[in-house]
Amino acid sequence: xxxxxITGLYVAQSIIGGITWTGLPAVMREAGVxxxxxxxxxxxxxxxVLKFLWSPMVERYRLPTRGRxxxxxxxxxxxxxxxxxLILAGAFEPTRWMPLFAILTVVAFAASTVDIxxxxxxxxxxxxSQHGWANAAQVGGAYLGSALGGGLFLxxxxxxxxxxxxxxxxxxxxxxxxxxLLVAARAPKEGTREHVPSLLHALRRPRLRQGLFAAAIFxxxxxxxxxxxGPFLVDAGVDLATIGILNGTGSLIIGSAAALIGGxxxxxxxxxxxxxxALILQASLLALLxxxxxxxxxxxxxxxxxxxxxxxxxxxxxxxxxxxxFMRLSDPRQAGVDFTLFQCADAAVSIAxxxxxxxxxxxxxxxxxxxxxxxxxxxxxxxxxxxxKRETPGLGAANDTxxxxxxxxxxxx
Length: 413
Hints:
MFS_trans_sf; membrane; AmpG_permease/AT-1; Growth Hormone, Chain: A; MFS transporter
């Protein structure tokens, strides 16, 4: 029941992300919004970048010095704000991008706060034997949520309209949040805690700081092209309903399969080879997209296959290893703070990359943009190789989540 509740929240958060970063760019492009403004969608992720600032306050409220765990309260309030935000967003047309950006930024603030509580609750509450399942729930939930928010959402728009699609996603958030609230209600009524969560405690740990640097390199190299793939498919003549089916299928089938393969590879080889292989695969796929635009020789079916392999397959494969390290390097006494720092590094480079991506694509075209993105992914390989350290295969990173920080044997292995 605990894993079910946590998985439900991860799916719900990813629905919001799928709507914002996959669905909305494609809808805006079909409505005639220029690429440079579509690139600004990445700014909606600002709360995910800045949430480290209020993560200690959230953790102190969630885990008071004496009293009950308040994770359920945080999730309830944040969930209601997210649901009503999507209902309000449905009242605006996609061309009204400024009010939509404002509403979705508030939703992102609520969802990011819920995420702090959810991650902390997961690391704190799950037994060691369940840590591997928690990683699977996080990655699998993210891709299921992406299938709903980026796939089903677009399909509903293509077959009905924006309002019905947005309100349907609000209803999904409501249903997905209920299991966690039932689990949180069963948390111990009272408890005493000596440790006071703080950013200073996290940033004093050298391994965490090195992990942040490595995470930033990996994320910017792997994700910089993500926001332009939807508009690229639209400009290639693919309709929204087809893109919705493609995103949904890619997330449900390719993304889930790639996550399982990535998890198996991490256990067999350690995380360093998985991270490097993901970068090489992404560089190859982006080079194919660049070639398709420059030469015009690729059929649309090939372009769609390469696009979904990049945005779903390689992304899932690489991020299994990345998030395993996030869990491993988080102190369970303040997991909501530590895990948040890693996620903020992810969001920060995603925002910067998304804004720059829109400007480059608008100014120079998709061919140059995807060529540059491929070169960036390939150029990140030696950097990740130099920062990463060797790990003994078979020791899943997630299985060490509750080990003391000093016992972690590698920073980003």
